[in-house]
Specification:
The chain has 175 residues and is mostly beta strands. The protein is 0% helix and 43% strand. It has no helices and 13 strands. Strands 5, 6, 9, 11 and 13 form a five-stranded mixed beta sheet that branches. It has a four-stranded antiparallel beta sheet with strand order 8-7-10-12, with no helix packed on it.
């Protein structure tokens, strides 16, 4: 902080820029890494040395705006839900008509850390779904019936900017 006279040395201000006995103050504020992004208030108080000139206070509110961080890229999960077995007896060699079939259902996505349902997605007729998620650990749970089909839960670690595939199997209960 420093002080300068509007019109010359204190008491000698006779130019058009100032009046006698009038001072102006300049303030400099520097944001350092320790205080950047912080808000606050600056108070400037003046006590007049001249009778009849009132004291004054100036309050400056400093509002910091958070920098726009570069958003973290999302990760992509491509999944497919299958329903099986389809036939009551497995044969050797396997019967192609008895291979697991795509299952149209809802997949609930939960954050592992909280257990709360983050979102849900409906699979298409091929049992496929695609998710774009923030990096984190998620539990994928395909919904089945009250007893069958019973679907296995899949836990997946989503990595920023990476794509991965998952398979969710649902058991029909046929034996």
């Amino acid at each position: 902080m420093g002080s300068i006279s509007n019109g010359g040395a204190y008491g000698y201000g006779f130019t058009a820029r100032g009046k006698p006995n009038c001072w102006a103050y300049y303030l400099e504020f520097n944001l350092t890494p320790e205080n950047s992004g912080q808000s606050g208030r600056v108070d400037i108080n003046s006590t007049s040395a001249i009778r009849g000139i009132p004291n004054y206070s100036i309050h400056i509110k400093v509002l910091a705006t958070a920098p726009n961080p570069t958003p973290t890229p999302k990760g992509i999960i491509r999944g497919q839900v299958f329903l099986g077995p389809i036939c009551p007896v497995e044969r050797i060699p396997p019967d192609p008509a008895c291979t697991p079939k795509p299952f149209r259902t809802t997949v609930e996505i939960q954050r592992v850390a909280t257990g709360a349902i983050y979102k849900s997605v409906m699979t298409d007729f091929s049992g496929s779904f695609t998710l774009s998620l923030d990096p984190d650990r998620y539990l994928l749970r395909a919904t089945g019936g009250s007893v069958y089909p019973r679907c296995t839960d899949v836990t997946v670690q989503v990595i920023a900017g990476k794509s991965q595939s998952v398979i969710v199997n649902c058991d029909t209960g046929i034996r």
